[in-house]
Amino acid sequence: MYMWERLLSNRRIGLLLITIAMLASSCIKEEEIIDYSDFFIAHAGGAIDGINYTNSLEALDLSYSKGCRLFELDLVFTTDGKIVAKHDPPNMTEEEFMSQRIENKYTPLNMEAINNWFLNHTDAILVTDKINDPERIYNEFPFRNRIIMELFSWEAVDKAIKLGIKPLVSENLIFDTPKIEQVLENKKIEYIGMSHHRIDGNENFLKQLKKKGIKNYIWHLEEPIDGQPAEQYIWKYKMDFCYGMYANDLDLLHRLIISK
What we know:
Radius of gyration: 23 Å
Oligomer: single chain
Distance between the termini: 50 Å
CATH topology of the domain at 38-124: TIM Barrel
Strand order of the largest sheet: 1-2-4-5-6-7-8-9
């Protein structure tokens, strides 16, 4: 083979390798741009080992490792008036609560532990449930630009707005307030939340809210809907009427998004 032929052959091989590298790089980038951190709130920290509602340190860590950045915790009071993360109020003191393992293996969370976790996860956002006291959270959670509070009265919503806390207006206010669209617009509400049962019969209303940029997050996704995992059913059939979900199975949702 002449020298110029060898050079041409080497050049072709080089171009081929560059092309393959570019294609591989584009595939990696395509995977990287899948960002579902804003669509899904890790419900009660997210499921762990197939268990929902742990509100545990390990659940937060697992959901964060899977790409979630919005974390719902059920904040309730102990018998001595301290805030802890649990689905139902514990009939015990904070010290007693923190001394016990959840499901005999997971680490419980009080406000000190919650604050430490969010201190070390600077892009994470706390979404609260149960507690309806913005002032208490304002005083106990220092990262006030990284909190969304589900609230259950307009008094609490107004107080949160005044304190600079973003409210997520709960379904009882959405469906019990006259001229709710005007109220949401006047208060510049960004977030609302409701059970998936509320979608049926309210499709046009919810679609209009979505067009206005209001982010509706759906919950009650623990049980299957029409024989399908609830997250899958909502993703396939109901996303025109909501923005995201209080998710348990983050792996399932990730697969659904990739396959879309």
